[in-house]
Write a structure and sequence with these properties.
The protein has six helices and three strands; from the N terminus they run αβααββααα. It is mostly helical. The protein has a three-stranded antiparallel sheet with strand order 1-3-2. A hairpin with a 2-residue loop joins strand 2 and strand 3. The radius of gyration is 18 Å and the shape is elongated. The two termini are 30 Å apart.
Length: 119
């Protein structure tokens, strides 16, 4: 898929699509004019860029996603771990926990994720 990092404006745009997909491209233009104060040309430029990145698709004047919001967030999280912690998830978790105390509920949720993964 290549580079899936999004600029702030791209992120705001794709959020609009994720919330309403599938959406007609003409409707998306009107939505972006209202929500983002964009001109039609800006909407289509950003749409084209996100299609090239493999995040969105525009087929038969209908815009939808190629990856879900959850998949996008998972890939971004993986990239942070790769770039910052040499791919070590334990190092990432240790760094996170050194600055933020986890609640009992959060610990139980994390333990359940680990148990489900092992099982």
């Amino acid at each position: 898929m290549g580079d899936i990092k999004l600029a702030e404006t791209e992120s705001r745009f794709v959020e609009l699509v994720w919330q309403r997909e599938p959406i007609a491209s003409g409707e998306l233009v009107l939505l972006c004019e209202k929500e983002l104060n964009w001109k039609k040309s800006t909407t289509y430029t950003v749409l084209r860029r996100l299609c090239q990145k493999g995040i969105l698709k525009n087929e038969d004047a209908t815009v939808s996603s190629r990856i879900s919001r959850e998949e996008y967030m998972a890939r971004c999280s993986e990239q942070v771990v790769e770039d910052t912690f040499e791919g070590s998830l334990p190092q990432f978790v240790a760094a996170f926990m050194s600055r933020k105390k986890l609640s009992r509920k959060q610990i139980e949720e994390i333990q359940k994720l680990i148990d489900d993964y092992e099982g």
